[in-house]
Amino acid sequence: MGTVVLIRHTSVDVPAGTIYGQTDVLPDHTFAAEAEKLESEVRPFTGFSVFSSPLTRCRMLAEALFPGREIHFDQRITELDFGDWEGRRWKEIEQLEEGRYWFDHYQTARCPGGEGYPDLYSRVRDFLICYREKFAGGAVIITHGGPFRVLAGLLKGMNAEGVWDLPSPSYGGMELFELE
C-alpha cells in the first residue's frame, strides 16, 4: 500500500534526566549536523506526505528536511503529557511515592496533572486511523519517542501492551514500514 517513515526529533537542549514531554523545548546546538545527516536518508521520500508534531523540536526538523513542502501538524502525535512532572528530574520523581507507583503501573497510571500511556496510545491510534488512506502514497512522520513507539507497534500489528516493550528510538532515529 505504501511506505511509512517514522523519525524521532533530534537531540534537545535540556539537561539529561529532565522530564520534558509536552514542554516546548528547543533542539540542541547539534541540530544542524543531525538534520544534515537525516537529509540524505530522507531524500528518497521527498514526494511523500509529511506529518509532524507541532512542538518546536519536531517542527524545526520537518521544516529543515522538507523545505517549502506542505507539512500536516497534528497535536495527536505530541509526546506524553507528564503534567506536574514536566521540567523536573526523573531521579526526583523516583523518590516520590506517586512516582514509584507510576513506574510500577506505567501502562495504566496517569502522571499527576497529565496523561497516562492509555491516553497517548488512544490519540496516536486515532491519528493513524485518520490518515491511513493518505499513507498509500507514502508518508514521513516526525514525532517523539512515545508516539514513535506507539506508531511502530501499531504498524507492526502489536497490541497496546506490547508497544511499551519496544525500544525507545534514539534522537534522530528513523524506521521504515511497508503497509499492505
UniProtKB/TrEMBL annotation:
Superkingdom of this protein's organism? Bacteria
- Please name the SMART domains in this protein's record: PGAM (SM00855)
Q: Supply the name of the protein.
A: Alpha-ribazole phosphatase
